[in-house]
Amino acid sequence: MADSMASVESILAQDADRYVEDLKALLRIPSVSADTAFHDHCLSAAAETAEQLEAAGCSAEIISTAGFPIVLGRSPEVPGASTVLVYGHYDVQPPDPLDEWETPAFEPTIRDGRIYARGATDDKGQMLTHIKSVDAWTKAAGHPPINVVFVIEGEEEVGSDNLDQFLKDHREKLKADVAVISDTSMYGPDIPAITYGLRGIVACEVTLTGPSQDLHSGIFGGAIANPCNELATLIGSLHDADGRVTVEGFYDDVRSLTDQERQAFADLPFDEATFCNNIGVKAPRGEAGFTTTERRWARPTCDVNGLFGGYSGEGPKTIVPSKATAKITCRLVPDQKPEAILDALKRHLEDRLPDGVTMSFMTYHGAPAFVMDPDHPAMAAASTAIDRAFGKPPVLIREGGSIPVVASLKSILDVDTLLLGWGQNTDNLHSPNERFSLKDFQRGIHASAALWAELAK
């Protein structure tokens, strides 16, 4: 295995420039899943992904769904070897606002050692690291030392509506010992990381309705309930002065951090003043008794994401609005149940709803939190592989966001997921001038190739 890995590393160095050109080819395709004007481009991105899988020595199928197709790839079978399922996505976010890009979003450009384009790090560049690592193994040894299955979808940026059904329909084909996703980030520049936990999420929209239409506030104000005022009161009831969520039962199932986890978080390089300065706030704020890192990664939250009602145009308009709406999400931690949290939130609001207004409560997507046992054998393999590629072992981190597919892989396929991010949180994901360090692109390919060797042991 040592000789084979040395041959693989030789191929990685030899083909580094070709890997970048292949990445550019995929980045040139404007595969924006949210906009029907880009429909054909999404199909082209699926085809390009399949072609690159085949060039890497894999079989590749483009499988139709009710939406955009899913590309299913498979390396040559190695009987008796373990199987890894690699998930990624070929669709990207809309590039708007276009005038804030220094170079066009779908004309990949290299500046200062980074490649700039929509999808560079989310997720075309990161996903491609695993295809190219299989490519290197194919050239060096005929195939990787384990079985690698690829599931590359085209609807991640619009909710992955057809992914769960695909996983159920192809359950037998997708049996694996562990999954790998590279759609997260390193902890910081030159600080590789394994993300062992993600927060879950629930989302809802709350609308209060008072009068049947907007009314003159001079004639009716003070005599009827104002939906905007009442919604503000309800929102104010969601937290106490210490930043704790006041919804009954909200914390009942929360899994607390261990002392070891809290110490590991505290040992990570983190400067609170720099954190605040980078995002333009004067001071952090959140649940009392926890650090900023703990609040972001491992504590549940309840946030208003949007708030609207009444008149919002220029100048005054003296009305009692007919309606007011809040969009609310709760980030969840391990053991919290999405359905229970939504039910509790709804009850909290209903119990405080004043006379004179009615409430509608609409729910959206949800997913439970994820945490992987740091002692899982695949974690040790990933740590060794990353150390070989980056020259230093990874730190173990959690992230505050949610990746619903992780929960789907566990619930449908009963497989745990290694979250191995090669990008940075500062790579302008979903924003103009998205980028990906080419050094980390190549190191990601190297780490992926080494991971296949470690998992084969």
From TrEMBL:
Pfam family, one: Peptidase_M20
GO terms assigned for molecular function: metal ion binding; peptidase activity; succinyl-diaminopimelate desuccinylase activity
Enzyme class: hydrolase
EC numbers for this chain: 3.5.1.18
The entry's keywords: Hydrolase, Metal-binding, Protease
InterPro entries, per database record: Cyt/Met_Dipeptidase, Peptidase_M20, Peptidase_M20_dimer
All copies of domain Peptidase M20 dimerisation, residue ranges: 196-356
Protein name as annotated: Succinyl-diaminopimelate desuccinylase
